[in-house]
Specification:
Elements lengths: L4 E6 L17 E2 L2 E2 H11 L4 E6 L11 E4 L6 H7 L10 E6 L7 H13 L4 E6 L9 E4 L5 E5 L6 H4 L4 E8 L1 H9 L13 H9 L4 E5 L12 H21 L3 E2 L6 E2 L4 E2 L4 E2 L4 E2 L4 E2 L4 E2 L4 E2 L4 E2 L4 E9 L2 E2 L4 E9 L1 E3 L10 E3 L12 E3 L10 E3 L2 E3 L4 E2 L4 E2 L8 E2 L11 H6 L6
Parallel strand pairs: 1-4, 1-6, 4-5, 7-11, 12-15, 13-16, 14-17, 15-18, 16-19, 17-20, 18-21, 19-21, 20-22, 21-23, 22-24, 24-26, 25-27, 26-28, 27-30, 29-31
Antiparallel strand pairs: 2-3, 6-10, 7-10, 8-9
Length: about 425
């Protein structure tokens, strides 16, 4: 499939209904931008050639991808036509995708392509049957099941409005049909916009077959236009990710309260407790235990049999096998060895006081025992087998097998509050 199929992903619109300075397609969604989910669905379906159609302002944000620039927002037909120079010489079918359908699955993409090729169609429309057809264009089929026409809701008669099958705006075209019909598009609106949907009517009018494939799950192909819809998509993708991890042998105690980004890797026999968040590119090894209320950030590796406990945040760190960070600690930019115990309330202070300098790293060796309320002022190296006294701020390296810390002992000034502020009567 890869050699004879390319995809055009339309991502040039601003998405004004998001009420955001960030273009709609670039909003984050479980560790990826919205459009990246669509690109991944195409690639996982076997499409190696993916061209993103972007606006001039956002083109540079697609580093490593083939990009076509739509100079002005003149509609979906113009967006697809903008990709033609990039695909010059390509001789296969062309898949046209919207960049705002992050729930789209590779299975649906493959099924659409299979229908297209079995029908030997000039083009194939991906349709769906939502609970509420709203303003979607209605699919009208001919007697053979092919597309007769797409009727926009505003132009539909009552009988057509009653149709449940609607247009998703996702298509696959035979290349030899696509480029010529795009050149024939005309605008029928004050904005001067060209719509790729109009190509289907032109093809049908030419007597060329246009097939229709119905998406099994309507939610997959509904576009995201508002932040409320973005939240619904996030919930669906969260459930999909969690289910896959559980099928792979991960125990997720409460999937509804557990958020795992798409690129997180978790080995079998890991347990994740409720209200835990795992973000970015992290690796959790077999037997580890996460949460509840844990926050694992990008660049982290959690070793076999390790524990990241309650209200613990870990960022860009290596937590060695069997090491435990049970509660109330922040570990950032640190390397921790095997079998170490990090007591409650520990912090690696990694931020440089010199502007522009990178964050410093903390190294805590194997079999180390820290105390309650320790702060490690990076860069600092605590060697193997060391112990740290409670309440200590560690600013210097600690040799192997040493006991370090010893904050000043408690000093009590009796009656100081009363001397300063007077004794107040209590009712």
């Amino acid at each position: 499939m890869a050699d004879d199929l390319a995809a055009i992903v339309m991502a040039g619109g601003l998405g004004t209904r998001m009420k955001s300075a960030v273009p709609k397609h670039l909003h984050p969604l479980l560790g990826r931008r919205m459009v990246d989910w669509v690109i991944a669905a195409a690639r996982d379906a076997g499409v190696e050639r993916v061209v993103v159609v972007a606006s001039p302002d956002s083109a540079e944000l697609y580093d490593g991808l083939e990009v076509a620039v739509q100079e002005e927002p003149r509609g979906t037909g113009d967006a697809v036509r903008s990709a033609r120079p990039v695909l010059e010489g390509f001789d296969g079918d062309v898949l046209v995708l919207n960049g705002d359908v992050p729930a789209l699955t590779p299975d649906t993409v493959r099924a659409l392509i299979d229908t297209h090729r079995r029908a030997n169609a000039a083009a194939t429309v991906l349709s769906f049957e939502p609970a509420d057809a709203r303003a979607y264009g209605r699919i009208v089929r001919d007697g053979g099941g092919n597309l007769a026409r797409i009727v926009e809701a505003a132009d539909a008669n009552p009988e057509e409005l009653a149709l449940r099958e609607v247009n998703s705006g996702i298509y696959v075209f035979r290349r030899t049909s696509l480029w010529p019909v795009l050149d024939r598009l005309q605008s029928h609106n004050a904005q001067g916009e060209l719509y790729v949907t109009d190509t289907l009517g032109l093809l049908v009018g030419d007597g060329q077959p246009v097939a229709v494939h119905v998406a099994a799950d309507p939610f997959e192909v509904e576009g995201i236009n508002t932040r409320a819809e973005l939240a619904l998509a996030a919930e669906a993708l969260r459930d999909r990710i969690n289910e896959q991890h559980m099928l792979n042998g991960v125990t997720i105690v409460d999937p509804a309260s557990t958020w795992i980004d798409a690129d997180v890797q978790i080995a079998p026999d890991v347990t994740i407790h409720p209200f835990s968040v795992l973000r970015g590119r992290i690796l959790v090894a077999t037997g580890a235990e996460i949460g509840p209320f844990a926050y694992i950030r990008p660049g982290t590796t959690v070793g076999e049999g390790a524990k990241i406990g309650t209200f613990v945040e870990v960022k860009a760190s290596i937590v060695g096998p069997r090491t435990k960070i049970p509660h109330l600690s922040y570990i950032g930019d640190a390397d921790i060895g095997e079998g170490t115990n990090i007591a409650a309330g520990n912090v690696t202070a990694n931020f440089s006081h010199i502007p522009g300098e990178p964050k410093k790293r903390t190294r805590i060796g194997s079999n180390v025992r820290t105390g309650v309320d320790n702060t490690f002022l990076a860069p600092v190296d605590v060697a193997d087998d060391a112990w740290i006294a409670p309440g200590a701020v560690i600013t210097d390296d600690v040799p192997p097998g040493s006991l370090a810390g010893f904050a000043p002992r408690q000093e009590t000034k009796e009656g100081w509050v009363y001397d300063k502020h007077g004794k107040r009567d209590r009712d």
